[in-house]
Amino acid sequence: MSTTEGLQYLLLVSCAASLLPLSTLFLLINYAYISSAPRNSARRHLISTPGFISRTILITGINSPQGLRLARAFHETGHNVVGADYEPGGLPMPARFSRSLRRFYRMDLQPEEKRVVSYIAALVQIITTERVDIWINCTRSADPFIEAQAREIIEQDTNCRSFGLSMADAPYFATRDAFLMHTKSLGLPVLETYLVRSRDEVHRVLHNSQRRRRYLLQSLNPDGIPAESSRTMLPRKTPSQTYNTVARIPIQKAKPWRLEQITEGLKRYSSFAIIVERNVMAFVASYPTGTGGAQVLDSKSALNQSMLMFMQTFASKQRPGFSAHLGVDFCVEEHANVSGVLENIFPVSVSVHAQAGLLFFQGAAGSAQLTRAYLASLPSRAKDDGDQQLGSITVVKQDSSNAEVAMPSANTSGIYCFGQELLQLCLTPLLGVLTREKSLIEWFGTLQLFLRHLLFCRDNEYSFEDPVPFWWAYQVYIPLQLLMTLYMSIRGSSHAWPHDPVEVCPPQQLDDGRSHSGIQPTNLILGLTNGVEKRSSYPRYADPQTQLARDYLSGEI
């Protein structure tokens, strides 16, 4: 750990300690106001509605902003929520103090070779104990194959529905390349990718693009090729530079190279869709605002409609029974013509876990939208709370199924992360002023931006009706994590602390689907093993991990 990082940690801890009395006072005032108002009046009204069925929902990865928002949505609309997550170092996670949870389960760390087995066993135990109706995984580090294995076992051995990919669908979402190949096979537009076996093929692609696109030429077998030559950006500034560069590339028919369109410089948008039985039930598109925040895209805009149509077409061409929540990042390519500017959208990455776009479904109306979308995957026994009039819902019709797509309104507040912006816009610039690396004017500029987000945007974790998780995160959990990390760093034995530096905010997604953050995400491929009901007469499975979990549950291992 560098000296600058150590100073930042100490500055954050000192700031939290100095604000503890004031924040605690605000917390008490917050709770006093909540107590004076009719408690859970909307929730109690829904529960008492004739024909209403209260479901039990298990949410794993509950400590993520998405998991916490989803738990609050289900609780607000009259359902019971059970949360589960990993608590590194034994410190209680902020989400476990949420008023929306009926019960919280702590997932225990297991050795690498037992993680899949114990994870699935823990899910079965919780589902059986709590009589869960639907399991929704909000873990950001979810492995599609492990989730698919868990779904297969859970749905065959319990009455619980699993909202996620099946074993047949998981391979198409395992990697970025697999997703793009699958998307292309469905006839949808994707970024250009070629396997070139000669220099002529490279020049042909560059000529057809008319310098409107840029490409990355990289070797599939970099052994024996200088590092500076194994990856080349094309075209160069001039045609002669391009020809000279390509001429030096050792392309052979037996050793093809990969030529891929790059998205550098193109506008980026993120989308999130809840898909049930190949129908898009809820959709939102957003764009980044600079410091980890995001703003919703107008649902009536042509760009939003294009991305929605893409997701509807993609969903309709999946296997029967396909249900999942997908986050797809798009890049937008603009071309000028006689009638104006033509925008082409291309998917660049996919994630199969709940995305930050879920946070744009705000208020009572947003809770109803989310609840109705997810519960549509359950067998219809009666009208669920999604049919209650909890607010205006913006919808569009799907031509293929006449289903309605719920979307946030255009005036939805932007999303930001208090901790990340406090660090990047306030404390780090202040540290720069103290070390004379920045001026006071620069600090006041970033401080003004922070205050604007604080007043007009919505934090990804705070809720006025449920304030304790936010207070616990910034006054207890994060300061203790920072102090422990700093202590272990000073001792030179950071491996003794069983947790990476605390994750203040969700990591950003890279093009290849990997998480990118200076602070590592929680991994939920962990689990409990005690008290799992033993079963017998399980069928054998070709997949070794699935069969291993089966054998564990049946007591054979």
TrEMBL record:
Keywords (A to Z) from UniProt: Membrane, Transmembrane, Transmembrane helix
The name this protein goes by in its record: ATP-grasp domain-containing protein
Species the sequence originates in: Capronia coronata CBS 617.96
Spans through the membrane: 6-34
Cross-referenced InterPro entries: NAD(P)-bd_dom_sf (IPR036291)
SUPFAM superfamilies: NAD(P)-binding Rossmann-fold domains (SSF51735)
